Amino acid sequence: MPRPFTGRRRAVAPAGVVAFCLCLAAAVPVAADPLRAETRDTARTASEGVSEGPPLALRTNDPETWRVATHPVPPLVMEAEGRLRGFSIDLWNAIARELGVRTAFVRVDDLPALFGAVSDGRADLAIAAVSITAERERRFDFSVTMLETGLRIAVPAAPDATGSATGRALRALLSDATFLQVLLGLAALILAVAALIWWLERRHPGGMAARARPAHGFAHVLWWALSSLAAQAEEMPRSPLARAITVVWLFTCIALVAWFTAGLTSTATVERLRGAINGPQDLPGKRVGTVAHTTSVAYLADHFATPVGFASLEEACAALQAGTVAAVVYDAPALSYYATQPGHAPLRLIGPAFNRQAYGILFAANDPRRKRVNQALLGLREDGRYDEIYSRWFGSESGEAQDR
């Protein structure tokens, strides 16, 4: 049987509902306005003198730091007073600003170390003077082309390239201190022989020096001694001792003429060899210096030259001046820059650049950074900032290295 209804329960239920609604209404404004609550908390913190540091968003959105490997390749990468500069460095700094990233340069010594730094993870990418080739593309990824260039040939710069090779050889001999000393010794020897023959012949009846005046007799004998060098002496001494001395002198003249002819011939040959390279078609069969582990080595080997690898361009050019290689072949920008710098023997660059090739920024395979770098690099080309950087180092508003 249902319990009888009482008025007391009916009065309690509405009171509970009202109390619940009042509590909910008081809580909703605080939850619905977090900005006001945060403002009150910030004001309270400031009034209490408590520093909370930078907001959380600033602490978590610091710029990325990318490790960039590089090595000296003037004028693309140079180091002076502990700071890096050059075309590649300026270009990368512009890309980094475009991407909003920081750079930590990883300095290495040569090109193999550059590849090693990227492959073993010590660097995120690499920039210097890295040619894009099919073999390298199989192991790494490259950016779009950052510089179009080629190879050039350097030979020693002759002080005077005018005239024939024989004329240049004669000038080279006359400018050699040792050769001049030998000539002075030869002149003294001729005077000594002439004086001795004159002294022996001056009193001999019918002798070469039998002249009214002693000076005339000595001049005649001196002319005879000089003519003997060219085997043109027609008169011979009359005294027995003078004839014995003449035999020795004639053999000496033969040896002196042979020595002079050999020196002139060898110097002329060197001059012809120096002028024999006028382009890449003249390289086959010759020893050509270059920097080891670069695309220049492969080019020389493929075109029947004998590549001689060196650790640096400076060493290759030193070998060129020493005569151990006939020419130096290397990247056009680096070779042109080196040829214009003081402090070393002058070089002569042969012809325009050949074996066109492209430089790129090196990445590990499938690196997602490559797309971002490509976008930034293309943006620099489109808005003209690339041309400004290029002109700063090569003096031309183009993406292709010109001869300087």
Automatic annotation (TrEMBL):
One of its GO terms (molecular function) is ligand-gated monoatomic ion channel activity. Residues 65-396 form the Ionotropic glutamate receptor C-terminal domain. Residues 1-31 form the signal peptide. It is found in: Membrane. The chain crosses the membrane at residues 179-200, 244-264. Keywords: Glycoprotein, Ion channel, Ion transport, Membrane, Receptor, Signal, Transmembrane, Transmembrane helix, Transport. Residues 65-397 form the Solute-binding protein family 3/N-terminal domain. Pfam families: Lig_chan, SBP_bac_3. It comes from the Bacteria. It is a multi-pass membrane protein. Residues 39-61 are annotated as: Disordered. GO terms for cellular component: membrane. This is Extracellular solute-binding protein.
